[in-house]
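Here is the promised in-class demo. Please do not try to memorize the tokens; focus on the logic of going from shape to residues.
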């Protein structure tokens, strides 16, 4: 039989579209591979430069550091710049980008020279800084405090030493400069005892080294942190994208042409080819009946039915770990396993009802038999392993069952509530509909509150225990209900995360609280979760506000939950470095409730530790709690970290936290959270 001219036309158009698409795919793939590779290289330069800046900052705070890391980062940036400058596509298609890359190379080399100078100066400053306490201790041992002259020397020396350490750590040039007259005064002291004279001169010499080198040390730090290199890199990215726009227009035009050809071919093929009157009722991957076949069976069945629902728990993680193809094989083998198991239910049919959901539909039995059959299905998976590529796979299977209509919905509700390994049979006593309704109500309440701006910050004062004055406030989220009652946001947080409303809560609290902070004195502590820190949008919002209000960062403390910070060490360290750049301080919240990993806390350069309320609230009745808190206080004092006690609810506990040496406290004994910060005044 000869093909009709219409069918021949369809074949010709179809083949033309396929050939054109293959050509287009090859062309565009090469284009985007090269473009993405260059963009990634530019981003890699930026990332490596940020690591270099971090290492420089790290060197300023830690006494013993490995300079090889800095040199490694410098070599990496140089290599990345040179690779881009010599990239064939940059040479041929992007001359302006290449010019800017060469400029950036010169800027970076200037920065490298500054870094080398800084390393030398930093070594001198750190050597003197570390030597001063040792010399000071020796002077204290040999000087006679009964001698007025020696006692005066010791007092002046201790004063200068303390100021040097404070000025060095705070990077305060004025504070160091203010020591000149004291150092001159100290140099006038001379002692007949040779050892005393020698030690005194060594101490004075180290003070003079700090005084002489510190201005250059700070100037180098400022020059190294000059944003010119970062700005130039951004210009390179923009120029490269602008130069790529011409190439992209050609690709876009060709894609429109191919899309038109494809649509034309598809339309003709759809119009002329015979279509099946019935849609396929078979899942193409597993060979089981699909969701449509299930719905038709439910619709047309004259008998009462029951459904056993089978889910591969955490299938997405399996897919991500082994790959999509291995995930497909697991679905195929699971389907085969289900359809061939010795199932004793009446007239069963087997379905794939979702991505990783399978169902066995059969004629109604008693509730006892339904539970027995569900256990039968579950045991079949544990007794007979699934084998893929000669390897045993043991996916976690969760089973539920229902004979309440609608079967799939009720079985799915039971499945989602199944937190144990045994099958769960749906019945009205589970009250799952009410749980779902409550969650829906909470989501609506939260959405309405966010839209109507009824999610607001409250402020709980934090008391400086040495002065009994309010010096800080913690920002707490509150939701105002429609009946004007004020509730904590805490009961809404889990449902907020599930409904993608969590970031909105963070953003609205940040925006409102920072507006209040701008008007009130003192420091303010704002809670952030790991979700917030991992959100580029949230971090960008914080950075934008801090850049718009330059002075506000020095009065902001970001609190991070201790257990979360320990688990997300690298991410939190990067965030802390960013916030320290703006002058913000970092607190670890609920310390003592989680891992309490002291060494990692030190490595995170934390400024404040908030001792968890579960320890504080029992200080007046539990000696063990006192021991734990005292250990935390001793650790923080040795590390120069400030402490805050939470949940101080009575006078006895307030007295204990003060006696333990804790710096600050908060709780209902002092103040309850309020919609506005309180004035700073003595209690």
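The designed amino acids, position by position:
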């Amino acid at each position: 039989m000869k093909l009709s001219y219409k069918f021949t036309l369809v074949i010709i158009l179809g083949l033309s579209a396929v050939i054109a698409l293959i050509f287009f795919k090859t062309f565009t793939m090469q284009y985007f591979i090269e473009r993405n590779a260059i963009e990634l290289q530019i981003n890699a330069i930026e990332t490596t430069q940020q690591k270099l800046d971090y290492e420089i900052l790290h060197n300023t705070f830690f006494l013993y550091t490995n300079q090889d890391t800095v040199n490694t980062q410098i070599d990496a940036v140089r290599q990345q710049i040179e690779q881009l400058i010599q990239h064939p596509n940059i040479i041929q298609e992007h001359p302006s980008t290449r010019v800017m890359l060469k400029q950036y190379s010169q800027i970076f080399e200037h920065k490298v020279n500054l870094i080398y100078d800084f390393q030398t100066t930093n070594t001198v400053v750190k050597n003197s800084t570390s030597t001063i306490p040792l010399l000071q201790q020796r002077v204290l041992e040999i000087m006679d405090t009964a001698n007025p002259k020696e006692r005066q020397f010791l007092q002046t020396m201790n004063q200068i030493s303390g100021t040097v350490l404070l000025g060095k750590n705070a990077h305060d040039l004025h504070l160091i400069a203010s020591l000149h007259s004291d150092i001159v005064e100290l140099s006038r002291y001379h002692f007949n005892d040779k050892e005393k004279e020698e030690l005194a001169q060594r101490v004075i010499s180290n003070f003079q080294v700090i005084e002489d080198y510190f201005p250059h040390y700070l100037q180098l730090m400022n020059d190294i942190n000059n944003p010119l290199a970062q700005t130039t890199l951004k210009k390179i990215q923009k120029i490269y994208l602008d130069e790529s726009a011409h190439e992209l227009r050609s690709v876009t035009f060709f894609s429109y042409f191919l899309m038109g050809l494809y649509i034309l071919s598809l339309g003709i093929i759809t119009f002329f080819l015979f279509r099946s009157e019935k849609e396929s009722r078979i899942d193409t991957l597993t060979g089981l009946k699909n969701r449509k076949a299930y719905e038709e069976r439910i619709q047309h069945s004259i008998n009462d039915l029951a459904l056993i629902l089978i889910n591969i728990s955490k299938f997405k993680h399996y897919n991500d770990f082994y790959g999509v193809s291995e995930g497909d094989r697991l679905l195929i083998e699971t389907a085969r396993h289900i359809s061939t198991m010795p199932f004793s239910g009446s007239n069963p049919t087997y379905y794939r009802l979702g991505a990783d959901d399978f169902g066995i539909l059969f004629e109604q039995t008693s509730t006892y038999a339904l539970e027995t059959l569900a256990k039968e299905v579950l045991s079949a998976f544990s007794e007979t392993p699934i084998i893929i590529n000669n390897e045993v796979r043991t996916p976690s299977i969760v089973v539920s069952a229902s004979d309440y209509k609608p079967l799939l919905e009720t079985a799915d509700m039971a499945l989602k509530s199944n937190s144990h390994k045994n099958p769960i049979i749906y019945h009205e006593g589970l009250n799952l509909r009410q749980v779902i309704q409550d969650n829906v109500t909470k989501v609506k309440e939260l959405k309405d509150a966010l839209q109507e701006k009824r999610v607001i910050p409250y402020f709980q004062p934090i008391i400086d225990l040495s002065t009994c004055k309010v010096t800080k406030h913690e920002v707490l989220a509150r939701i105002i209900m429609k009946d004007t009652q004020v509730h904590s946001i805490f009961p809404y947080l889990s449902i907020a995360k599930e409904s993608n409303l969590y970031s909105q809560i963070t953003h609205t609290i940040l925006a409102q609280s920072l507006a209040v902070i701008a008007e009130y004195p003192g420091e303010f502590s704002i809670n952030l979760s790991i979700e917030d820190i991992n959100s580029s949008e949230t971090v960008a919002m914080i950075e934008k506000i801090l850049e718009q209000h330059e002075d506000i960062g020095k009065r902001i403390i970001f609190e991070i939950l201790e257990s979360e910070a320990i688990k997300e060490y690298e991410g939190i360290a990067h965030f802390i470095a960013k916030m320290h750049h703006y002058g913000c301080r970092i607190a670890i919240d609920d310390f003592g409730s989680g891992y309490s990993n002291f060494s990692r806390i030190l490595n995170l350069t934390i400024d404040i530790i908030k001792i968890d309320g579960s320890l504080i609230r029992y200080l007046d009745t539990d000696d063990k709690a006192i021991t734990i808190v005292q250990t935390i206080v001793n650790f923080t004092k040795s590390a120069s970290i400030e402490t805050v006690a939470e949940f101080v609810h009575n006078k006895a506990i307030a007295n204990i936290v003060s006696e333990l040496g804790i710096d600050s406290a908060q709780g209902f004994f002092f103040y309850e959270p309020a919609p506005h910060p309180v004035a700073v005044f003595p209690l």
